[in-house]
Structures are given as structure tokens and as C-alpha cells.
Amino acid sequence: MSEADTPPDKTTVNIRITETFLADVDGAWEDLGYNSRSEFIRDVLRDAVKHPDFNRADLKAMLAGEVDIQEGRTHTSDEVKAEYGLDGEDE
């Protein structure tokens, strides 16, 4: 294996979280199909670093939208256009 093919060294990082939160983390990585807790946490941290503008408020808005969809609170494109005064043509 050449130096270019050598995976980067990894460092162990210790964090303190409650047992309850750890159970939530474990349920999440298993439900999402990750191979390990570490793989899941690395992915979550990578997303947080690569997309720092995506925050908790964005997540809450997405989740609220998903709940609306699941509970049938949706609007047709015509309803949205009417509400915002859009006629569907480019301005």
C-alpha cells in the first residue's frame, strides 16, 4: 500500500453524555443502518462541520413540515400561488 492509499490516522475522543441520550444515539445509528456508533457520530460531526448554517431551527422546521405532511395538512401548488399572489408566470 502506498502512502497515498494509507488511511489517515484516527484519534479517540471521549465525551460524557447521559445513559438516556446514549440509548437514543444507539437507537438512531441502528435504525439508520450505520455499522457502528462511531461511524454514525463521525457522520453527524462531519455534517455539522461541512454545513454549519444548518441548525436546530432548520431541523425543527423540517420536522414540523414532515408532521404536517403525515397528518394531511398540505396545500396544492394552486393554493400556495393564490395565497402569495403568484400567477405562475415568470416575472
Automatic annotation (TrEMBL):
<protein>
    <recommendedName>
        <fullName>CopG family transcriptional regulator</fullName>
    </recommendedName>
</protein>
<keyword id="KW-0614">Plasmid</keyword>
<dbReference type="InterPro" id="IPR010985">
    <property type="entry name" value="Ribbon_hlx_hlx"/>
</dbReference>
<dbReference type="InterPro" id="IPR013321">
    <property type="entry name" value="Arc_rbn_hlx_hlx"/>
</dbReference>
<dbReference type="GO" id="GO:0006355">
    <property type="term" value="P:regulation of DNA-templated transcription"/>
</dbReference>
